[in-house]
Design goal:
9% helix
């Protein structure tokens, strides 16, 4: 049996964000970090316990997915996160955004639902060269579907 041929490139991945009240039309995020563009953290969607009598039980609990975004120090998309952060500081309020991640390599799209800016890096690390800035989004949910259906 022949092995299947796969395409797992990330070079053609796209990520767009919309934050009503700051930038209402989708903005494409560009100039990601080297070998570290964006990722989602694992979530624990339950609690598992074992009693002293050795019986195990489990229960579901809601999750809040996190997406880490790493942008080169000179990324023009850094300004989008700057504007989002500054608007929240000025208004003393949280703005809710949404996003779409498209990964053609695996023919999937991911919708970021009710995304909040949770982590913000003011200044890139100053080393031999300026280092990427990291931003963290926490959201209500990440839904996914085959490419072209979201």
């Amino acid at each position: 049996m022949a092995a299947s041929i796969g395409n797992i490139t990330s070079a053609n991945a796209t990520f767009t964000l919309t934050v009503p009240g700051i930038f209402s039309s989708p903005q494409q995020i560009q100039q990601f970090g080297v070998d570290d563009a964006f990722d989602s953290e694992a979530v624990e969607n339950g609690e598992v316990m074992k009693g002293v009598d050795n019986f195990i039980t489990a229960g579901w609990k809601p999750t809040m997915p996190k997406v880490n975004v790493n942008l080169m120090a000179n990324s023009p998309s850094g300004v989008l996160f700057d504007q989002w952060f500054q608007a929240e500081q000025q208004d003393m309020n949280k703005y809710v955004g949404s996003g779409v991640i498209t990964l053609p390599g695996i023919a999937m799209q991911y919708a970021l639902v009710s995304a909040y800016l949770f982590g913000y890096t003011h200044i890139p690390g100053v080393k031999a060269t300026l280092q990427p800035r990291k931003f963290i989004l926490i959201m209500d949910d990440i839904s996914y579907a085959p490419l072209g259906t979201i």
